[in-house]
Amino acid sequence: MTSGPYEVLLETLDPASHRETSLPELDGKPDPWESSMQATCECLSWRGAFDNLERRHAEDTLGETIYRDFPVRTRSVVVTAHTLMDRGVISPNELRARMDAVRERFHRQ
After folding, report:
1. What is the pLDDT of residues 58-88, one digit of tens each?
2. How far apart are CA 16 and CA 52, in angstroms?
3. N or C: which end of the chain has fewer CB within 10 A?
4. Nearest-5° angle of CA 79, CA 100, CA 77?
5. What value, to the nearest 5°, has the Cα angle with vertex 13 and ends 8 and 18?
6. What is the C-alpha to C-alpha distance for residues 18 and 107, in angstroms, rounded to an integer?
7. Domain extent for 46
8. Domain count, the chain
C-alpha cells in the first residue's frame, strides 16, 4: 500500500474483505451506514460541495485504482473522504480522530 494522506483510508480495509465478483455478492439490502452515507452524499451534492455525478466519476476512477481492493459498497465512503481531504475540508489527522471516536463508541455499547 502507499503512504501519505490517504493511508488513513487504506488502513480501513479489512484483510478478510474481498472485492465482489458476482451479482449475488453485489445485490443485497444496504447496511444502515450505507443509507446514511448516501444521504450525506446527497446533502453534499445539494449544497454544491461534491456533485453526485462528480462523485460517481471519482468512484469509477479511484475505485479501479487506489481503492480497487475495497468492496464495492464501501467505495462511496472512502472516495468521499479522499475528495474531502483533497479539498482541505478535513485533514488525515482529523479524519483519524473522528474514526477513532466512532470506534470507541461502538466498543462501549
Report:
1. 999 998 899 988 888 888 889 999 999 999 9
2. 30
3. C
4. 15
5. 160
6. 24
7. 33-108
8. 1
